[in-house]
Design goal:
By secondary structure, this protein is of the alpha/beta class. Helices cover 32% and strands 19% of the residues. The protein has twelve helices and 15 strands. A hairpin with a 2-residue loop joins strand 8 (188-190) and strand 9. Helix 6 packs parallel to helix 7 (244-252). The radius of gyration is 22 Å and the shape is elongated. The protein starts with 6 loop residues before the first helix and ends in a 13-residue tail after the last helix.
Length: 383
């Protein structure tokens, strides 16, 4: 393989892509900082929000041109749509009634607009948290395995662009996905799961210094440009927090539901509440709350310690009227097996800790089958 190209060579390639006004992409100042890692190229093209649809073919042309360069293994190009300076910010307004929709020529609220299905996937579940450090990724992987134990064909997508952990949790740190026709990636497979992560495409220690729209574009490509095959359910390990990436994902992906992961203490619950409210705003069903690190059993004495408090997530679920899915204890074995790339539901499938995840998976599988997820009422719509 040829040597990895530098930024100057990539910019020279982009200078050959002409815009309608006669300028090229570089002259027009549309190209962001170019990020190169292990033969993979990432950058964004900035345009006005009103021109985003018109510039999509330009984005595709730029991605194809850079992908064709010697030394480039793959390219990911995002379209960053920004409003013109001085433009008024969008104002929230109530969702229109059916009558007002008809009067406005059939216009529908954002939450009711159709979302394109993901090929090869029947249900998509988002595993989210209002903050980092609550064990969301470990929960997401063991939840996918719990759904598998419930008889569903499952896959998992690591959408935590800034801190992908699935390669380590699955022991696939050195693995690379195969590229099929039309730049579609074949997911890796382990433990019977179909698996994809940005961590398979860049080195583990490479920092992802991306703007929000690039993160959204990367997540969308990882979701829709992967050859998922006959999945009953795809678990998406979401980035922590409630920013642009999470909101855009919830608005544009046909989620069957969301699972909120929290620890028992009040500060974590405040952030978990924000995550739940975000899904409410985009009318995504809330499948329930998981209380992680719920309690600790001393291995030498068997004495129980509520290190972070106890029962806070259950009380919060009852207060908000959503299902409480279960308590996952703070156990050394869960941490050790996760770090070793053999999750507890695989290394000790008949043990008490695996049983917790399997029970949660069974509850979610039942909700999906019966359509009993707690669906919030439509709320304020933002356009």
């Amino acid at each position: 393989m040829s040597a990895e190209p530098n930024k100057a060579a990539i910019e020279e390639t982009l200078r050959r892509i002409a815009l309608p006004d006669g300028r090229n992409l570089v002259e027009a100042g549309m190209v962001s900082d170019i990020f190169i890692a292990d033969g993979k190229v990432f950058f964004s093209l900035s345009c006005d929000a009103e021109e985003a649809q018109r510039f999509e073919p330009v984005r595709q042309a730029a991605q194809q041109a850079v992908t064709a360069m010697d030394g480039v293994r793959s390219a990911m190009v995002a379209l960053t749509a920004e409003r013109k300076a001085g433009g008024a910010a969008p104002r929230p307004r109530p969702a229109p009634s059916p009558q007002s929709q008809s009067a406005a020529g059939g216009r529908r609220p954002v939450t009711d607009r159709p979302k394109a299905n993901v090929a090869g996937v029947k249900h998509i579940i988002a595993v989210a948290s209002g903050k980092g450090g609550v064990g969301k990724s470990t929960t997401a992987l063991n939840l996918a395995l719990g759904l598998q134990a419930a008889g569903l064909k499952a896959g998992i997508l690591d959408a935590d662009i800034y801190g992908p952990s699935l390669p380590r949790l699955t022991g696939l740190r050195e693995a690379k996905p195969q590229q099929l026709e039309d730049r579609i990636l074949k997911p890796l497979e382990k433990f019977g799961l179909q698996i994809m992560s940005i961590g398979f495409l860049v080195e583990e220690e490479t920092p992802m210094i991306w703007r929000g729209p690039m993160v959204v574009s990367a997540i969308t490509q990882l979701l829709r440009e992967v050859a998922w095959t006959d999945l009953d359910v795809l678990v998406v390990d979401m980035p922590p927090g409630t920013g642009d990436a999470q909101l855009t994902m919830a608005q544009n992906v046909p989620l069957s539901g969301a699972v909120i992961v929290s620890t028992p203490q009040d500060l974590a619950l405040i952030d978990a509440r924000k995550g739940l409210k975000m899904f409410e705003k985009v009318n995504v069903p809330v499948l329930g709350i998981v209380e992680n690190m719920s309690y600790f059993i001393a291995p030498d004495t068997g004495k129980r310690y509520d290190i972070f408090g106890h029962g806070g997530a259950k009380d919060e679920a009852e207060r908000l009227g959503v299902p409480f899915l279960g308590e996952v204890p703070l156990v050394m074995a869960i941490r050790e097996t996760s770090d070793a790339g053999t999750p507890i539901t695989v290394s000790e499938p008949d043990g008490p800790h695996a049983a917790v995840y399997q029970a949660i998976g069974a509850r979610i599988a039942e909700s999906l089958a019966e359509g009993t997820a707690a669906r919030p009422a439509p709320a304020i719509v933002f356009e």
